[in-house]
Amino acid sequence: MLIVNSTYVLYNIVPFAFLILLISIFIDVFLDYFRKVEKSNKKRFILYSFIFYLISLIQIIFGGFTLPQNPADTSSRFISTNDWFGIFDTMHFNISIWSYSAIFYNVILFVPLGISLLLLFNLSNRKAIAIVILSCLVIDFARLLFGWAGLTSRGYGNVDMIYLLLNILGGVLGIFLVNCAENLIRSYQLKLQVK
Q: At residue 27, what are phi and psi to the nearest 5 degrees?
């Protein structure tokens, strides 16, 4: 029997994706010079922040990507090239499953998704919640497939179902925060109009 021990490098996708994002921002601003109608800077800022959040979310969830592994491996080690997201890797791989920080981390990870859905796309609460649930399911299914194919270092375990529920809770919390902020702003504006 042949024993194979391999080491794989996990590649960080954020720097490459960030460069592509910067180029697309430059092109968008350059084309704005030739357009007749200018885009709202606030909407543009929220959109680009959302795209950067999605890029970072993919890196955090998957922990990096590698080339397909050798099926004959009996022991695989992964070397992370992540300098930028080292703290997230430490949190993701070394936190106790039931620690408060792991629970907080998994809830807070999807709060920007809920916020962005309402601010960017003006969706109703039901549609936004449905998209949050669907997004969390698609991400976890993709992580399962990439782990099974050997493209990421993590597979999928029983605890990940709890993390899935915490991620959904985070997205719904983001929607709730936007609704609360909108209600506060409306009530403040009404108070100003009464005076």
A: -65, -40
